[in-house]
Specification:
It comes from Methylobacterium iners. This protein has 5 helices and 3 strands; from the N terminus they run H-H-E-H-H-E-E-H. By secondary structure, it is mainly alpha-helical.
């Protein structure tokens, strides 16, 4: 006895398909914008030799008066990152090690996160402004 194949409807012919596709694209754009707000892209001097994760971490710290551990994790790993707290601590340690020779200090706020020393914030602001103006690469 031959069985008849069940013919499934073609998804693009469903009335709601195009509406759902447009909504997905809208949500993806909103997600991209929110990620950009979470960690705006800053260009730091090449002489600091920061990796991509280190740059994202420093940008998160720079853009907040005080940066929580959760925000650091999101900045380094994205919203769905699964790395351990030790990984975030290691990245932070490396950022500190690379920036100390340039007079930039990241202060730990016990139980809350980290922040930049006020003088360090000024140094970073000057360095990024110089790069934006084309004075330093």
């Amino acid at each position: 006895m031959p069985s008849e194949a069940v013919r499934l409807p073609e998804p693009w012919r469903h009335p709601a398909f195009h509406e759902m596709r447009a909504r997905i694209e809208e949500l993806e754009e909103e997600n991209r914008q929110l990620r950009e707000q979470l960690v705006p892209r800053l260009v730091f001097p090449k002489i600091w030799k920061l990796s991509r994760q280190q740059s994202r971490m420093l940008a998160a710290i720079y853009n907040a008066d005080q940066c929580s551990w959760e925000r650091l994790r999101s900045a380094v790993l994205g919203l769905d990152g699964e790395q351990s707290e030790k990984h975030i601590q290691a990245v932070l340690c490396n950022v500190r090690r690379r920036l100390t020779p340039f007079g930039i200090v990241i202060v730990t706020v016990w139980g809350q996160g980290v922040r930049l020393d006020p003088d360090s914030r000024v140094l970073i602001q000057q360095a990024t402004a110089d790069i934006a103006a084309g004075r330093r690469v």
